[in-house]
Amino acid sequence: MSRKAAVVAVTALAPISWGSTYFVATEFLPADRPLFTGLMRALPAGLLLLAVTRTLPRGAWWWKSAVLGGLNIGAFFPLLFLAAYRLPGGVAAVVGSVGPLFVVGLAALFLGDRPTVRSLLTAIAAAFGVSLVVLKAGAALDLVGVVAGLLSALSMSAGTVFTKRWGRPEGVGALALTGWQLTAGGLILLPIAFLIEGAPPALDSTNLLGYAYLALGNTAISYFLWFRGIERLSASSVTLLGPLSPITAAVIGWVALGQALGPVQLAGMAIAFGATLVAQLNPRTPAPKKTESFSSTERNGQELSMDLEGAAVRR
Prior knowledge:
The protein is mainly α and 315 residues long. It contains 15 helices and 2 strands. The chain has helices at 3-18, 21-28, 34-53, 61-74, 76-86, 89-96, 99-110, 117-134, 143-166, 174-197, 205-232, 235-239, 244-257, 263-279, 302-314, and strands at residues 168-170, 290-293. It has a two-stranded parallel ribbon. Helix 2 runs antiparallel to helix 11, helix 3 packs antiparallel against helix 10 and helix 3 crosses helix 11 (205-232). The longest helix has 28 residues, at 205-232. It starts with a helix and ends with a helix. Residues 283-315 have low confidence and may be disordered.
């Protein structure tokens, strides 16, 4: 396996992990507390990474981290949950699947990446495939839900593009940058969750286990892999790994919850997965972008990246 393929394979673990979120939320967590769940995903994970890396932003990176954390976490989670509440799950997933198209446009505007026919066609094919997997007949539309879903996709897409545009400070590992964003996003979610949902619910051991998984594997590690992938791959290539999330959710629903998968769903999986693969063929992979010098010599995350890539290559 080439190094480029290894980067793609490791980055793909992030949306695959996110595909387990629905199963964990329904089987392990308190019902009807989506904002609290988002808070428990982001803030503990961010604080843990800050404690591990022991590196804080400096200079312009205070506001850059706040912007990225707001786009990727603080705005994305509430808008996503609002769409999920106002729309059937399949409709929400289809609305969110337009994210790659947003990335193509934003990358052209802010990164100077000219959209190609392949990037547009693969984005459309991926959205179509996802619609076949999750959309059910008679699904109702709600204007507020649709707008929230589109804004959530736009927020995450903008976060992806600006993460690519700004890179990270020299001498700071991707693990530290992930911790900055998760902490900033979690702090944005904190007042929103308490104002809308009130005090935290009583938690039992099953709930705590679910939140531990979401904070560690589903968020801290997954977002680290995602942001690291943004550095090494084109923005459109990374975002077109996103369809792996609803595909994974459908497979988990079939295996663990007994949800049926018919020929239409299987065809949709094949189309979405095929579009994901095509998007990775000979993508433009500019060298990792670095910004202003940062005096810290922290290298946390970079060593872990090398280990993960090495494992993928050995596979």
